[in-house]
Amino acid sequence: MKTIHKFRLECGKEPNTLKLREGYRVVRCEYVVPQKGVYLWVEQPLNVAIPVVERQFVVVYSGDPVPTSYQYLDTALDPFGPEAYHIFEVDVAPARVAASRQQASPTLFRPAAQQVGTA
Asked: Can you give the pTM of this predicted structure?
């Protein structure tokens, strides 16, 4: 089973961190007038055995620069104002690349039981 949850995103340079189940999918983004805020709707599995991951999202105004690694998701418009809010997911690939670089090469480092001269 799966469900859709709604999250409020704050505008600004600081990313919004959300805890989501692996396999999540952003399905909608909208500026909600009565709450005067940007909201993100995310579909995610209900199975509690699926691991939770932390993901970061930023909301920027038109014309604001963002790193090229950020992935654009959607734009929310204020129907009664001039603002457009653009939502980007902060790319997690650099962390994955760094982690993979830190993994030891099996030819250079072996478990103690497999090292030469170990009985």
From this structure: 0.74
